[in-house]
Amino acid sequence: MRNKKSNLPKKHKGVIRTLARSVRQYKVYAILNPFFMAFETLCECLIPFVIGQLINFIQDVPPSGFLAQIIYAFGGNPNGVGEERDFIALIVLGSVLLVLALLSLTFGFLGGKFAAIASTGFAANLRQDIFYKIQEFSFANIDKFSTSSLVTRMTTDVNNVQMSFQMLIRIVIRVPLMMIFSVIMTFSVNATLSWIFVALLPVLGFVLIFISLRAYKIFNKLFTKYDDLNASVQENVKGIRVVKSYVREEFEKNKFAKASGNLMTGFIKAEKLVAWTTPAMNVTIHVSNILIGTIGALAVYYTSIGDYRFGALAVGDMSSLITYGIQILSSLMMLSMVMVMLVMSITSANRIYEVLVEKSTIINPLDPIYDVENGSIDFDNVSFKYSLTAEKFALADVNLHIKSGMTVGIIGSTGSSKSTLVNLISRLYDTTEGDVRVGGRNVKDYDLKTLRDNVAVVLQKNVLFSGTIKDNLRWGKENATDEEMIDACKIAHADEFVQTFPDKYDTYIEQGGTNVSGGQKQRLCIARALLKNPKIIIFDDSTSAVDTRTDAQIRKSLKEDLPNVTKIIISQRVSSVEDADMIIVMDNGKINGLGTNDELLATNAIYQEIHTIQNNIGGKPNA
């Protein structure tokens, strides 16, 4: 459906309006740039006319119009010819030419500078807007786009849109004006020969538009392949240690080569089409030059003998016509190049637009609660699935009641939805059915920051950021003192290894925490969560990389130092949860068993099996 007041589809108008908001403080530069382009183009179109008049004057044809008036103003005689030729007129014509060239250079420089400032500023704002938007996304929104796709949109797509924006405020303004001014000037020189350009323009225009539209269909498919390429690179770099340990370098090289090859093949196909624009342009220019040269030569000849069947045409006039012809056709060629770039950027703009208008599936309530009374947790008839179109629930019919200060263990096979269960507590996802309550209130009623500050989560995939150990710990509490950080690290049993580093808490952590072990990384992440002083702390298999002795020490410290904090421990090890006040056995998205260690050993088959296998009861210990 199209808007009656515009030829643009409503979606495209929405894309333009949304992206245009990112221009912001650079709007002045974007608005002023077209004025500089207009003046530059005007000067460039006057230069061939002045050159033609100068050639005519040398050939004993006096200049007319505004040039004659300028010559008179400086005391020259524009009508002097032959031996009486006025050299002041020559100097004036040369000076006018010089002034026009300097003005064209000045306006062109200012236009280029303003266009560069506006486009780079626009791109910077656009990246910022996308990044800030991503920060608002829930896990469900991230899942929808994928990390690699979001990276592509912030880099390749933004670069494409930036280039197009610069072309829009510079070339797209300059080119139509150049064509209009040049056509006007050709008719002012010789109306008869000017129709040659008018006849050739539609032919070349049709060819260029046809090529651009065909290329658009190909470019439109290529950006999903960019996502595939980025995904391949991201996955490989992130898992480089696994790749090397399994000697899979050749496999990864082949996978990357395939993704890169598909992208290359698509671009070659598109560029083959785009390459036809240059031959089409050259043929048109050559045809116009042949016609202008042939007919123009006849016109100059007949004019010299007083016959004006082709209209009056001097040598300088023919020179001007040829120059204007090249300017007109070159402008159309440049316009076709811009169209190809715009065609490429349409897809990029749409992909950016999708991110900017995406609504987070999790938002703050209108009148949020800013205080969490205690660490009690209640699940009332909760069911959840990751997508509304999914056939199966990841969690189904969960009813659970945890008192504040309890230690709760969660155990179950891989894929039993243990992590999914706890992700609902801090609203990393929202329930599909039923309610989750923390401190007696529905989690959807809380201010998100308040809720997540009071429900600390040490995720299964621990992440440390580049910076010092102190920098990473202060993610938990921005203004944490050294004493607070040391206390948190002592509870997490991280202080003992931090003190062995030469720079202790000022030790620099490489990106991703690659210069510390998995167990050390986990303990620092636990300390970081403890600094939030939460009412609930969730350990999502976050001690899997530490030995059982250290695991037991951490649990003991948590019990002694945080008696009023509700502690939820997800683990694959029975030893990590057997001392819990309550153990939840998950199976296939449902609670299969609930009770203490002794109660589950007596009543729950799944827990019995896990306990038996891990403790080697009834069989020989593993070597």
Overview of this protein structure:
By secondary structure, the chain is an alpha/beta fold. β9, α19 and β10 form a beta-alpha-beta unit. It has a six-stranded mixed sheet with strand order 6-9-10-3-11-12. The N terminus and C terminus are likely disordered. It has 21 helices and twelve strands. Helices cover 61% and strands 10% of the residues. The radius of gyration is 37 Å and the shape is elongated.
Layout of strands and helices, then pairs:
Layout: H1 10-20, H2 27-58, H3 66-73, H4 87-136, H5 139-145, H6 147-169, H7 171-189, H8 191-238, H9 240-245, H10 249-275, H11 277-304, H12 315-356, E1 377-384, E2 395-402, E3 407-412, H13 418-423, E4 433-438, E5 441-442, H14 448-454, E6 455-458, E7 467-468, H15 469-473, H16 482-491, H17 495-498, E8 508-509, H18 518-530, E9 536-540, H19 548-561, E10 566-570, E11 582-587, E12 590-595, H20 597-603, H21 605-615
Parallel strand pairs: 3-10, 3-11, 6-9, 9-10
Antiparallel strand pairs: 1-2, 1-4, 4-5, 7-8, 11-12
Helix pairs in contact: 1-12, 2-4, 2-7, 2-12, 3-4, 4-6, 6-7, 6-8, 6-12, 7-8, 7-12, 8-10, 8-11, 8-12, 11-12, 16-18, 20-21
